[in-house]
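TICKET #2291
ISSUE: user wants both folds in one file
ATTACHMENT 1:
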Amino acid sequence: MSDVDREEACEPAPVPGHMSADLAGYRWMRDRVGQSGGSVFRLHGKLNGPDAFLKHGQDALADDLSDEMVRLRWLAGYISVPALISFTRTSDEAWLVTTAIPGKTAYQVLEADPAAGLAIVDALAVFLRRLHAIPVCACPFTSDHVYSLARARERLDAGLVDVEDFDDERKGWTAEQVWEEMHRLLPFAPDVVVTHGDFSLDNLSILDGEVTGCIDVGKAGIADRYQDLAIMWNCLGDFDRSLQERFLRQYGVVDVDWQRLQFHLMLDEFF
C-alpha cells in the first residue's frame, strides 16, 4: 500500500466543544490503516502549530485509548513516544491528541528504499533492546500471555476476530482452529520484559536512519519478549527473509525459540 493509499484528505471530524479551538487551522488527513474500527487523523499545516494526531474511539476502543494515554505518560520517562496534547473521555467515547514524531514509519522507509533495509533493521533492534531494558519492577502494566489469552477469548466469543486478515500460513482457518493450534504450543517459560505489544513497522518512526520513537503503545506492559520479536519478524517477512534473520541476530537472539515465536504470531491473529 502506497503512502497515498494509506491516508486521505478529509473534513474535520466532530470533537467536543472545548477541543475545537485547539484544533482549528489544521488540515486533516484520515489514516486508512489499522485501529480496528476507531478513527485516526493526521493534523498538519497549522501556522505555528505542531503536527499532531487525533484518535477517536467508542466503547471498548475508548477504553483502549484510555490505556494508551496512561502508558504514553509512563513511557515518556524511558523512551521516545508522542507527547500528550489532550485527552477527553466520556462514558462511551474518547479523544486522544498527541504530537507527531519526526520522520516516516519504518514501513514507508523500507518500501521507498529497500537498499536501506539492513541499516533500518539494525536501528529497530537497537531501539527494541532499549525498550526491553526498562526495569520490569518499574512497570505498572501487565500484558502477559495469560492476560492476552483472556482478551483473545473474549474477542473470539464476541465474533470480533477478522479471519480474513489472518497471515498466509493460516488462510482459510477458523478462529477456533487458531485457538486450538495456539494452545498446543503451551506451556512455555516466558522471559518477561517491558514490551511494546505491537512492535510493527507501522508503529516505529525513522529519520536519517535512526528510530525517533514509537506510537500505538496501548498494549505496552510486562510480557514475554517474543511478543515484540514475533510481530516485527512477521512484518519483515513482507520484504526479505534475510531481514528477519538480521533483526533477530542484531537484537541478540542466538537460538530462536520457534515455539514461542509461533505462539505469539497466532495470538496476534485475535487482535
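ATTACHMENT 2:
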Amino acid sequence: MVTSIPLDTAKELVEAAEERAEEIENPMVITVANDEGNLVAQHRMDDAWLASVSISRNKAYTSAALDTPTHELAEASQPGNSLYGLQTTDEGRIVVFGGGYPLQRDGDVVGAIGVSGGAVEQDRDVAEAGLERWETLVEEGSA
C-alpha cells in the first residue's frame, strides 16, 4: 500500500481547493506535502501573495510533522501555555495559525495540505475543500 500522497492525488486536492478559492474570490497558494512534510505539489493562483508560497508550504509541513491541524496549535502556543514559543522552533517552519491539515488514511498521517493567501478563516475554508476531497478519495479506495 502507498504510504504517502502520489502526485496525481495531490493535483486533485489542489484542484478542489482552487475551486473553493475561486468561489470565494480569493487567490491562494495551495500546497500538498508527503508524510514527512516534504513538497509533493504546490500551486500559486494568479495574484496570490508571494509570501503565501512559503507560508502554505510551512502549514503543510507543520501539519505533517505534528499530526495536527495548525489552528489547533494557536492557543497552546500563546504566552504562558505549554507550547509557548513553538513557532520559533524547527528553523521557523512551524506555523501556529489555521490553514494546514494532516491527511490521514487508516489512522495514519500520510500527508498534509496547507493553504495561505487570505484571512485565516478563508485559508481554513479553502484547505478544508482539499481535505474533503481527500476524505472522498479515501472512502472510494482511490487514495
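RESOLUTION: both attachments delivered.
EXTRA DETAIL ON ATTACHMENT 2: Residues 98 and 120 are 6 Å apart (CA to CA).
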